Amino acid sequence: VQLQAYGGGLVQAGESLRLSCAVSGTIFGLNGMGWYRQAPGKQRELVAIINRSGTTNYADSVKGRFTISRDNAKITVSLQMNSLKPEDTAVYYCTAEGQFRTYWGQGTLVTVSS
User: Fold this and answer.
1) Where is 24: in which H helix or E strand?
2) Tens digits of pLDDT across the chain (114 residues)
3) Cα angle vertex 13, ends 9, 19, to 5°?
4) Helices vs strands, H then E, count in the chain
5) Rounded distance, CA 15 to CA 32, Å?
6) CA dist., res. 91 & res. 98, Å (int)
7) Does residue 56 contact residue 48 with C-beta atoms inside 8 Å?
């Protein structure tokens, strides 16, 4: 199983980016798919997660600005990030939760300049 994330880059504050993550291989009992991030010198934190039924959960810091979505047929998860702030700068990791373990992507860097 591999998770390939893409879409990161350098943007200015107030701009938007869209991250996407594609899963290759079979994950038994796939349910939640999500995004975490890790800023320099900080712990990894949950950004957003969506379960198979479409129920979502967001970190307070991104509510109203970020939107997570998934395509169950294509096994992809996306994160639309609007009104980006410098504090959103981090490496973003996609995840996929199976019945026995959670899989992680390799990370994609998002840099927001002020």
Assistant:
1) strand 17-24
2) 999 999 999 999 999 999 999 999 999 999 999 999 999 999 999 999 999 999 999 999 999 999 999 999 999 999 999 999 999 999 999 999 999 999 999 999 999 999
3) 35
4) 0, 11
5) 28
6) 23
7) yes
